[in-house]
Design a protein that fits this description.
This protein is an alpha+beta fold. It folds into two domains: 51 residues; 114 residues, 3-layer Sandwich (Rieske Iron-sulfur Protein), CATH 2.102.10. It has a four-stranded antiparallel β-sheet with strand order 2-3-4-9, with no helix packed on it. A four-stranded antiparallel β-sheet has the order 5-6-7-8. Strands 1-11-10 form a three-stranded antiparallel β-sheet. The N and C termini lie far apart (78 Å). Bound molecules: FE2/S2 (inorganic) cluster (FES).
């Protein structure tokens, strides 16, 4: 009987010591894990901010078949970011040089511009702003401020007119097109 009691009393400090050691080890490990996770996440965000993986990259998106646009005709196109673009055919041919894609949003105060084939220009009715066939300002407030229409690259693949869409505009915008 006494022997059991001695055994218990001699074991109790060892069990406590073992539990204490385990808890200290677990707490240290948890703190180290938290620090690593915290600094790791910070490092990931900082690296992504400083070196965006998709910066400058773009993908092709279908606009129309080449024969869908005759000279002087244009069609609206909405980028995944929500940006409004007007695509116009300005010459015969089956290369991208025969077409142009420009933002249809006036850089003056944001009204919608449209292509006027008979005047060979893009026109903004809000303040009579005008742009030449390449998007350079020629009249009105945009000309006074030297504000160009933003141009988007086009390409032709198997008789299909494609527009180059920046990848970051796809990955960072929400469903309403807000960046
Ligand atoms: S908004 Fe286009 S000219 Fe003013």
């Amino acid at each position: 009987m006494q022997e059991r009691s001695d055994t218990n009393s001699s074991n109790e400090p060892d069990v406590d010591e073992s539990r204490r050691g385990f808890l200290e080890h677990a707490a240290t490990s948890a703190m180290a894990g938290g620090l690593v996770a915290g600094y790791g996440a910070f490092g990931c965000y900082a690296t992504r901010y400083l070196y965006p993986a998709d910066a400058g990259k773009s993908i092709s998106q279908f606009v129309c078949t080449l024969d869908q646009l005759k000279i002087g005709e244009s069609l609206p196109f909405t980028m995944p970011s929500g940006a409004k673009v007007v695509v116009a055919r300005q010459a015969e041919g089956d290369t991208a040089d025969a077409f142009i894609a420009l933002s249809s949003i006036c850089p003056h105060l944001g009204c919608k511009v449209h292509w006027e084939a008979n005047n060979d220009r893009f026109f903004c009715p809000c303040h009579n702003g005008a742009f030449d066939a390449k998007g350079a300002p020629t009249e009105g407030p945009p000309a006074a401020a030297n504000q160009h229409l933003t141009r988007f690259p086009l390409s032709v693949e198997d008789n299909l007119l494609m527009i180059q869409v920046p990848v970051e505009s796809i990955t960072v915008s929400d469903s309403e097109g807000n960046a």
